[in-house]
Amino acid sequence: MNINRIFGENTRGVVLAILTVIILFPIGYSIISFVFAQTSPNAELFLEMPDSTYTECVKDTDYMRFHHWELLQSVRSEVVRFGIRGDISLSGCRKCHTSREQFCNKCHNAVSLYPDCFSCHYYP
Buried (b) or exposed (e) across 64-81, using 16+ Cβ within 10 A? Predict the structure, then answer.
């Protein structure tokens, strides 16, 4: 039995077009969702303001906004591996940022990030 008789001669073009759409769909979806995310009202800052009794953080705001996890991981490594307890700790963060729900979780949920820090560490 000849395969061309079963599927016809135009099938190759249709299959190629379908595969092209399937392969390019994730790229197109990413581009479109990126464009709409830039104009979304969720793109603005929505975190709670720190307690007014504290004037500055351990690092500047831009560093903490994008690299706080690196700081927390390095502190964790120093404490766990070497037993060095420095000035920076999670309890220090809690003094200024009192609500985990209003401070940590809002931002982490917005970017679909679910760290496991609080499975061991209590932070109300």
Answer: eeeebeeebeebeeeeee
Q: Say if pTM beats, i.e. exceeds, 0.70.
A: no
- Examine residue 47 and state whether it is found in any structural domain, yes or no: no
Range of the domain at 80: 56-119
Contacts of 118 (CB under 8 A, 6+ apart): 100
Domain check: are 28 and 72 in the same one?
no
Lowest mean pLDDT, pick from 1-5, 21-25, 51-55, 57-61: 1-5
d(CA 113, CA 104): 10
Does residue 48 lie in a domain region?
Answer: no
